[in-house]
Amino acid sequence: MDGHDARSRWDRIWLLSVYAAVAAASLVVVVRWPQPSSELLLDFGLAGLVAVWHWWMVTAHPRWPERSAGPMTLYFVVLFGLACWLFAREPIYVLLLLACYPTAFVTLPGWLAYPGVAAVSVALAFPAVLDTGWPPPPSLLVSAGSGTALVCAVGGALRALEAEALQRRRAYEDLSATHARLSDLARRNADLQDELLDRAREAGVLTERTRMARELHDTLAQGLAGILTHLEAADGHVPPDHPARTHVEVARDTARENLAEARRWMMALRPTPLDAGTLSAAIATVVERWQDGTGTRATVKATGTPVRLRPEAEEALLRAAQEALANVARHARAGEVRVTLSFMDDVVALDVRDDGVGFDPAGAGGGGFGLTAMRHRVARFAGTLEIESAPGRGTALSVSIPAVRPEPQESECV
């Protein structure tokens, strides 16, 4: 049981002790005086006043004992006064005075609890002093003093235990908060490590693709270009009716086709066509080519102040635009497509909207391979992909990626 449970249990005992003392003493009074009388009614009135006072100050305001020293001091003074009055009228209300012992330690702040305990002891000993006269006998003083000392010792020990339990609870809460912070830092560190690994892999892939493109350029493409140059030169020196002319033409055409294929591979190995310009220009080029190839009207617009992102992030946005336009061409049967690239303070958003047939996103599952790949590609940069559509109302695809600037690095050209 921790300190909070112990305090709650002690509070419940103290809360019920006053009610129990009033009820038990009043029951004894009823048994002794079964016939109603003015004295009995006065006793019950005072007992009821004690119960109401205790209910108002403690039961109805449970936070006061912990936070309001002034009201609780007033509560104890009034409770003690009523208990003394009842005790003077009916000795059985000594039960209420005894309940004032723990009440003093619960309600009176700091050292004031000890004068409160002493006052209760004096009230309990007062009838004996009236019987023996003044000065009281030493035995009465010793009995009252030892009882007061015992109550003070027990109350002080309970306060010390409560303070220690409270200190332990706060230490446990601090430890729990520290553990939660460390766990959060560990998770963030793991996320950062994963991000660094992803960036390292992406950088490795881009570096390898660039190297392969350079090797193709420096070896195969240059060699084919040299062969093609010599074949074209030889073609001019071979007579039209010479048997070798056919072989020269076939070799020339084959070299030209393979050179074109090598150049296509070189372009495919480049990270993106973004090397030749900005993201806005690259998307505009993609949209223009798509419009020429499909015959569907397409417009592109950029808003905000353009910023450069990491090359991988720009490639993700460009691929998203290409995939979205490809889906429009395959499924939408749209008459118009609007592409918007928005540069905001902390995010770059790409919106592709069409006026096609639309679909029900709930019934389409997670989408095809292209959309799944797009989601994964965008998620690698902490981005989001959202699709809004309805049958007959077109489709809107929105991709948002945090605007993280690229780190300074040397550019490599092929």
UniProtKB/TrEMBL annotation:
Gene3D superfamilies: 1.20.5.1930, Histidine kinase-like ATPase, C-terminal domain
InterPro entries named in the record: HATPase_C_sf (IPR036890), HATPase_dom (IPR003594), His_kinase_dom (IPR005467), Sensor_HK_TwoCompSys (IPR050482), Sig_transdc_His_kin-like_C (IPR004358), Sig_transdc_His_kin_sub3_dim/P (IPR011712), Sig_transdc_His_kinase_ChrS (IPR017205)
EC category: transferase
Transmembrane intervals: 12-33, 69-88, 95-128, 140-161
Cell compartments where the protein resides: Cytoplasm
SMART domains: HATPase_c
Domain Histidine kinase, first and last residues per copy: 317-405
Single GO term (MF): phosphorelay sensor kinase activity
GO CC aspect terms: cytoplasm; membrane
Cofactor: [4Fe-4S] cluster
Catalytic activity line of the entry: ATP + protein L-histidine = ADP + protein N-phospho-L-histidine
Keyword field: 4Fe-4S, Cytoplasm, Iron, Iron-sulfur, Kinase, Membrane, Metal-binding, Transferase, Transmembrane, Transmembrane helix, Two-component regulatory system
SUPFAM superfamilies referenced in this protein's UniProt entry, alphabetically: ATPase domain of HSP90 chaperone/DNA topoisomerase II/histidine kinase
Major subcellular location class: cytoplasm
EC number: 2.7.13.3
Main function: Member of the two-component regulatory system NreB/NreC involved in the control of dissimilatory nitrate/nitrite reduction in response to oxygen. NreB functions as a direct oxygen sensor histidine kinase which is autophosphorylated, in the absence of oxygen, probably at the conserved histidine residue, and transfers its phosphate group probably to a conserved aspartate residue of NreC. NreB/NreC activates the expression of the nitrate (narGHJI) and nitrite (nir) reductase operons, as well as the putative nitrate transporter gene narT.
PANTHER family, alphabetized: NITRATE/NITRITE SENSOR PROTEIN NARX-RELATED (PTHR24421), SENSORY TRANSDUCTION HISTIDINE KINASE (PTHR24421:SF62)
Protein name, per record: Oxygen sensor histidine kinase NreB
Lineage, top ranks: Bacteria, Bacillati, Actinomycetota, Actinomycetes, Streptosporangiales
